[in-house]
């Protein structure tokens, strides 16, 4: 016997009934994006490694430790499974001149890959949904994206998600803050852990995001980037705050919020919850006006966010917001294989009319008794059984049997009066199935 193969650690199968929850969430995301005027963009899963090295920053955790990178055996090209998709969307916008006629509002969803320790809501293959507004410079689009996310939480029925915001200013302001930050950290070098010492001169801003309790006092006393912002950066941040205030959106200014990629500037934000343990960030983003130039294009303003699908589904489950599993309108009971050709023809007509029907199957060997078929019909959650029995068919009829009272959908089988319906008029009983 061949060795049994399993999925790669941290890369999970999504099968029924769980996959129905994914479809439900995806449908709501698409619907909300359509109402806000965002259009779908789909980029390759594999991108040039240089896209992420230049876009995310060489000393970020993602580039240094987490990317799945490899050499193409045919031409030696360095390739990477995408660890995030903002850089890929910007690359696509440049390659296809998407901004030639003005700004674009785009969204994407799909798998991303990072080689990290799998834990609750965090996997090596994970799924992101992202919204990107390209070519818009003002804080109004920053606010729009934040409002959009808040509307999403309301539509999904989620609560307890808090918004944190900050401003990273512009490169010159960050450079001045960087000098002050390095000086502060060097003065407390004996209290830095090995990771912080390694980042001290390459990426000191990321030290502020440390989770090491022993370093919190040093980090809390560090110079604040907000104190180094110029008038234009402060104006952008204050106008964003005013727009959020006008919408009644609560937020907390977190001066230590820096985000994990080097491409951010000005507004950054995170939506966080305490209900997922250490993986409390469910959606995050900000402005990245310099990314177009970093990957070889002309300068263009841009802002966006991404959310982790697994984390949102975990939170929906935690708060009891996931919907009931979908059930078919009807289950077709076929006692005799001789009835299959006629039954399948009629069921096809019903499905073309929008009726969901699950047909009992198994051939002559697996059809089972009427009793066993009715057990499966009941277990399916269907509201009706369609019985293609020999007596019914001889009369040119099909038996329509309710399995549940209308007010107890999903409850145990409730037998009420059944009726015979003419085979020649499937639209009549299709209407009954749809309206029940």
TrEMBL record:
It holds the Pfam family tRNA-synt_His. It catalyses: tRNA(His) + L-histidine + ATP = L-histidyl-tRNA(His) + AMP + diphosphate + H(+). It is found in: Cytoplasm. Transmembrane segments: none annotated. Gene3D superfamilies: Anticodon-binding domain, Bira Bifunctional Protein, Domain 2. Homodimer. PANTHER family: HISTIDINE--TRNA LIGASE, MITOCHONDRIAL-RELATED, HISTIDYL-TRNA SYNTHETASE. This is Histidine--tRNA ligase. The gene is hisS.
């Amino acid at each position: 016997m061949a060795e049994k193969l399993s999925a790669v650690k941290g890369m999970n199968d999504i099968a029924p009934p769980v996959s129905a929850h994914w479809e439900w969430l995806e449908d709501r995301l698409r619907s909300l994006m359509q109402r806000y005027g965002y259009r779908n963009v789909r980029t390759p899963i594999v991108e040039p490694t240089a896209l992420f090295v230049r876009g995310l920053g060489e000393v970020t955790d993602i580039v240094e430790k987490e990317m799945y990178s490899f050499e193409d055996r045919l031409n030696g090209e360095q390739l990477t499974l995408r660890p995030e998709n903002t850089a890929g969307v910007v690359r696509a916008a440049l390659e296809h001149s998407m901004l030639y006629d003005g700004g674009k509002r785009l969204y994407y969803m799909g798998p991303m890959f990072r080689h990290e320790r799998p834990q609750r809501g965090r996997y090596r293959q994970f799924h992101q949904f992202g919204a990107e507004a390209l070519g818009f410079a003002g804080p109004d689009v920053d606010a729009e994206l934040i409002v959009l996310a808040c509307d999403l939480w309301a539509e999904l029925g989620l609560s307890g998600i808090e918004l944190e915001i900050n401003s990273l200013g512009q490169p010159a302001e960050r450079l001045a803050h960087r000098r002050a930050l390095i000086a502060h950290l060097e003065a407390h070098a004996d209290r830095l852990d090995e990771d912080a010492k390694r980042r001290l001169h390459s990426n000191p801003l990321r030290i502020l995001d440390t989770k090491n309790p022993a370093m919190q006092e040093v980090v809390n006393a560090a110079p604040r980037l907000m104190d180094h912002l110029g008038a234009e950066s402060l104006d952008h941040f204050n106008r964003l705050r005013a727009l959020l205030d006008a919408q009644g959106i609560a937020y907390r200014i977190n001066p230590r919020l820096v985000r994990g990629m080097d491409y951010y500037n000005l507004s950054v934000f995170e939506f966080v919850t305490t209900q997922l343990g250490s993986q409390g960030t469910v959606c995050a983003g900000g402005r990245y006006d310099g990314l177009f130039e970093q990957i070889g294009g002309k300068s263009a303003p841009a802002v966006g966010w991404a959310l982790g699908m697994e984390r949102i589904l975990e939170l929906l489950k935690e708060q009891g917001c996931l919907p009931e599993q979908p059930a078919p309108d009807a289950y077709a009971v076929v006692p005799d294989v001789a009835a299959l050709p006629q039954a399948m023809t009629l069921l096809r007509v019903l499905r073309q009319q929008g009726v969901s029907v699950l047909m009992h199957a198994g051939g002559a060997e697996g059809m089972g008794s009427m009793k066993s078929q009715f057990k499966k019909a009941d277990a399916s959650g269907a509201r009706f059984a369609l019985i293609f029995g020999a007596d019914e068919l001889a009369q040119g009829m099909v038996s329509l049997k309710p399995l549940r009272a209308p007010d107890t959908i999903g409850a145990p089988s409730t037998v009420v009066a059944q009726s015979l319906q003419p085979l020649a008029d499937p639209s009549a009983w299709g209407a009954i199935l749809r309206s029940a």
